[in-house]
Amino acid sequence: MTGAARRKLAAPTLAMLPRIADSLSFLYTEAVRIVQDDTGVCAQVESPRGTDRVYIPTAALACVLLGPGTSITQPAMATIARHGTTVVWTGAGGVRTYSGTVPASLTTAWLEKQVRAWADDKSRLDVAVRMYEARFGLGSAPVGASLAKLRGLEGARIKALYKLLTTKHGIKRFRRNYDPEAWDSQDPVNKALSSANSCMYGVVHAAVLALGCSPALGFIHNGTQMAFVYDVADIYKARVTIPLAFSLHDSANPERDARRRLREDFKAFKLMPKIVADVQSLIDPSNESPAFSDRSSDIVHLWDPQMGALPAGVNYGSESFDSFPGVPDGLDGYDLDDRDP
């Protein structure tokens, strides 16, 4: 079998691709070269024995986090893009997110819902309240509370959680500190928490992009291309990343252990399908189809404020121009594609 035949046989079809909710969270890579060969995408590492290869299940991953020292070839990137897997470029240990890819040909249904909810101050506040209640329980947000009030309540709850976990794990003192410039001097809990949060951001980023939403249109956070990602990721910190980080207070390598444990938690808590469902219910709680497909769509419509969505790829030159002011008589039915050069 020729190489071209193998690549054609391995090309994904829509039925083969898993939904983002079924994905296996994330994969962090560092100091490897990611390439495409005749059978799939693999990570190559040079060793005294030669070149070691580990194949990457790109179609089953929500995102691949590319850390320092990682390079990727164009054919490998093209395969990952066809599978709809998000690629996120990160700093060491997954800390700091520099950029992420956007899967092509996504439906804009959820983006349009997000924009409508974000553009109106009242509906934006309603989403922010739902986000707060998703973190701390239904009814935890006082009726009519402002965002300032919610921020104060959130800060008090997080401080109380830090104090509880500090006592539980016998830690003398803990203060949250995130300083990438002084990374090596931080304690294990802060290192684990920063690393786990960064991985959480990567996975949420992948889910947001796979649904076709904008990561920049946040309802609580603002002014950054990751605003909505931070909004959604905050929902899970008190239940997942913060307890995980405190449990690694005596770890010799808290960043690595945090990533490994977080992958286990994603599977145990079934977080990926929950993230997708939560994003949908936060933006549109009246949505009647929570299992809305997040797969790519090649269907394109034309917008019309009076007639609604119209099919694209249709020549409308044969329609009557009577309703269009300024069009000369005699152009009715004139096909613009048949004009003389």
UniProtKB/TrEMBL annotation:
Q: Would I find Nuclease among this entry's keywords?
A: yes
Q: Where is the composition biased (Acidic residues)?
A: 332-341
Segments carrying the region annotation (Disordered) are 321-341
Residues binding Mn(2+) are E154, H221, D234
Query: Which molecular-function annotation in GO is an example for this chain?
Result: metal ion binding
**Which GO BP terms apply?**
defense response to virus; maintenance of CRISPR repeat elements
InterPro entries under this entry? Cas1, Cas1_I-E, CRISPR-assoc_Cas1, CRISPR-assoc_Cas1_C, CRISPR-assoc_Cas1_ECOLI, CRISPR-assoc_Cas1_N
What cofactor does its activity depend on?
Mg(2+); Mn(2+)
Q: Which UniProt keywords apply?
A: Antiviral defense, DNA-binding, Endonuclease, Hydrolase, Magnesium, Manganese, Metal-binding, Nuclease
* EC nos: 3.1.-.-
Q: How does it assemble?
A: Homodimer, forms a heterotetramer with a Cas2 homodimer.
Q: What does this gene product do?
A: CRISPR (clustered regularly interspaced short palindromic repeat), is an adaptive immune system that provides protection against mobile genetic elements (viruses, transposable elements and conjugative plasmids). CRISPR clusters contain spacers, sequences complementary to antecedent mobile elements, and target invading nucleic acids. CRISPR clusters are transcribed and processed into CRISPR RNA (crRNA). Acts as a dsDNA endonuclease. Involved in the integration of spacer DNA into the CRISPR cassette.
* Family from the record: Belongs to the CRISPR-associated endonuclease Cas1 family.
Q: What is this protein called?
A: CRISPR-associated endonuclease Cas1
Highest classification ranks of the organism: Bacteria, Bacillati, Actinomycetota, Actinomycetes, Streptosporangiales
